[in-house]
Amino acid sequence: MLEINGLTGGYGDKNIVRDVSFTVKKGSILGILGPNGSGKSTLMKLISGVLRAEGGEVRIGGTSIADFSAKELAKKMAVLPQLHTHAFSHTVRETVSLGRYPHQGGWFSSWSEKDEYAVMEAMRLMDINHYEQTQIDRMSGGEQQRVFVAQALAQDAGILLLDEPTNHLDINHQKELLDTIKKQAIEKELTIVSIFHDINLASMYCDQLLLLDRGQVVRIGEPHEVVREQDIRAVYHTRVSNHPHPELPKPQITLLPGVKNASAIALIRAEEFQISKEMVLYQSPIPLKTVSSAVVNAGSGWFRNFMNRHVDAFYNVDDSVQEMTDYIAGNELKTTDTVGMMTAVQTQDVIVKEYEGLFGSIVIAVTAGVGNGVDVSKAVERTLRVGTINTWILVNGILSDEAFIQAMITATEAKTKALQQEQVKDPLTGTIATGTSTDSCLVAATQQGEKLPYAGPITELGKLIGVGVFECTVEALKLYELAKVKSL
Ligand SMILES: Nc1ncnc2c1ncn2[C@@H]1O[C@H](COP(=O)(O)OP(=O)(O)OP(=O)(O)O)[C@@H](O)[C@H]1O
């Protein structure tokens, strides 16, 4: 265990780092974050003993580092400094072998099997064994960085201090290096302290983070306690937005640029919908922020094209996402810029209406096929048949995350109410259907104009969505019934 208590120090009589305390347990990684000049490297130098502390102390396993000889300390603690200056050129193997110096007995001590193993293993872990005889001054910055990390690993110390280990590395090598370090931390129970400039990488790989500002700790804790918009903004003086990692419970941040491309002022209009027997298509002049349960590009994103495609009632392919993606591409639309839904309903029976509110307007589009109506409260295993209610809500306004979710809830409630009014039944249970088994919903917004933080039924936006989705669904259901009668 590494314990830092009230560590204070700097250069000459100037204390750069003041009163820093934390502990790092075996097998875990602590990441140090902070803007340029905040004292990260100085803190590392104080921890490694390169700089003498003016106050406080560093303890390893309960013993102060002041009580270790330089060699003893080097066996316990390996350091990857920020800048590597080498007076003369070594080969990769020689450079990595320098990591073994604390384990050498004296001038005439021989190179042991253990030394050889440690060097070979470190080179293997950093994937540099094929460069073994290369002069490091002939290597790229990223390759050199991996050699120096290998040198630190070859030292076989329980504590690793790393100053920006991913410096110069491409994204794959960043991942490979941090995966290796994390694996080493867990398997060999290493204690690791590392400086990071990349807050997202630090959040992903570290168990604890320490945010430093002007030499003092602003916050320390698990990544979710430290990677917070307000703290990052206050310390780095830049606007950021926080969002979840897609696979890990580790928060990520995105920079919000101070300068944006001038974007055309866009207004979504019902009359701009292109309706044919093949599809309903809306093409926006600007990307719309979208949340949907579509077939292609479901989830959240920014898209310009919105397609509701008519498919045969017996449409049945193994990979409908791929088939739909190919269909979008076949229609000369970019698959990365298009949200695609499907319906067995005649797309010419779509109801598209515009609703004006105090804040601006929304456009609602509904196709409704209820041959597969389901009473959700009595949902049972069913054979899946296409026949679905697709509801689009396109908003001329700026929606918050809450508003996107509330818009979906409000729209779903309005749809269910429409089914109730039209007495649409679940054919299996004979009770009123609440939807169909494959309904889709899409909410998209220009993110221009008025800020709309909420979309519940009590808000202006929610009222329009409620009335609009109800009316459009009722009308779409009537057209569906008509089409059914006509086809008999
Ligand atoms: N050798 C030195 N002598 C005097 N002052 C120094 C020395 N090294 C660094 N400093 C000063 O200490 C302060 C902190 O520097 P430090 O290198 O610790 O910051 P850092 O957080 O690691 O920055 P960066 O992100 O730019 O690497 C800076 O103001 C710097 O000018």
Automatic annotation (TrEMBL):
<dbReference type="InterPro" id="IPR003593">
    <property type="entry name" value="AAA+_ATPase"/>
</dbReference>
<dbReference type="InterPro" id="IPR003439">
    <property type="entry name" value="ABC_transporter-like_ATP-bd"/>
</dbReference>
<keyword id="KW-0547">Nucleotide-binding</keyword>
<keyword id="KW-0067">ATP-binding</keyword>
<keyword id="KW-0813">Transport</keyword>
<dbReference type="GO" id="GO:0016887">
    <property type="term" value="F:ATP hydrolysis activity"/>
</dbReference>
<feature type="domain" description="ABC transporter">
    <location>
        <begin position="2"/>
        <end position="239"/>
    </location>
</feature>
<protein>
    <submittedName>
        <fullName>ABC transporter ATP-binding protein</fullName>
    </submittedName>
</protein>
<keyword id="KW-1278">Translocase</keyword>
<dbReference type="Pfam" id="PF01955">
    <property type="entry name" value="CbiZ"/>
</dbReference>
<dbReference type="InterPro" id="IPR027417">
    <property type="entry name" value="P-loop_NTPase"/>
</dbReference>
<dbReference type="GO" id="GO:0005524">
    <property type="term" value="F:ATP binding"/>
</dbReference>
<dbReference type="Pfam" id="PF00005">
    <property type="entry name" value="ABC_tran"/>
</dbReference>
<dbReference type="InterPro" id="IPR017871">
    <property type="entry name" value="ABC_transporter-like_CS"/>
</dbReference>
<dbReference type="InterPro" id="IPR002808">
    <property type="entry name" value="AdoCbi_amidolase"/>
</dbReference>
